[in-house]
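Human:
If only I could read backbone structure tokens as easily as an amino acid sequence. I am handing you a single protein, as its sequence and its fold in token form. I hope you can help me see how the letters and the tokens relate. Thank you; the sequence and its tokens follow:
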Amino acid sequence: MAESFFSETRIPQQERYDSKLFPAVLSPPSAIPALSLPLFTQKIKTQKPYLDSLLHESGAVLFRGFPVNSAGDFNDVVEAFGFDELPYVGGAAPRTNVVGRVFTANESPPDQKITFHHEMAQVPEFPSKLFFFCEVEPGNGGETPVVLSHVIYERMKEKHPEFVRRLEEHGLVYIRLLGEEDDPSSSIGRGWKSTFLTQDKNVAEERAAKLGMKLEWIKDGLKTIMGPIPGIKHDESRNRKVWFNSMVAAYTGWKDARNDPKKAITFGDGQPLPEDIVHDCLGILEEECVAIPWQKGDVLLIDNLAVLHSRRSFDPPRRVLASLCK
């Protein structure tokens, strides 16, 4: 039995949706006193159907209490799941490769909140799965709240049916101004060279075209225009609609020396988004989210189609690493 190794655990922050706990939390069996990393990764491989099924049911799975101590250990865990890697092309967050398939999570300053979003929802090729790993737990704060997308869709449709109708009809356009190099003071400070993984403007244009992204070269940088792109998707594996966009993150958080968040996103027909409804959506996201304080060694696996995530501000130190999968 798969359950004989991974023990489903209750922690106070979990919520119950459709009779299922969110997120699911797994711990090692107490009967194995000297659990090793190789045993953990072996069990991931042999019990992957069970883990896939649990992720499909819950949308997110937290592995707590397993012997994952370093970026290299985390890379081994990610590799054990066997998902293909997704190159980080077109994303906005400044990140650094640490080892193998492991990157730093968004490196923006600790006092900045990163608002709810699906990873790379603003480009056509987005990751299907995200892994996060807590290498150094925060001094204070720094949670990564998660929220179920279909719950947000249902609540928004009930409260703002006309807005949701327009979102489904027109989609969204995302607009961003990029410098040449990364700006570590900004949560969207990725420069165009690291956004497109090249120093060559022609290669950047080719890679943008593959994403369906329009580029306008401007003084000292680049303007990217992405869309119209759907803001609601149909989750075929669960047969339900999901709130799949970075609307709130862009409208409230895409702010730095170059970018004005209110100009960062519009409906697909170019019409502005109503500010009150965007802020109401943020309130719903905060109401429905689950925020579990990080502990060293935690690994969080997220189904990117089913779940939005964010980051709360924190007191250093904190080091959370990430890996993106196709």
Remarks:
- The longest strand covers residues 221-229.
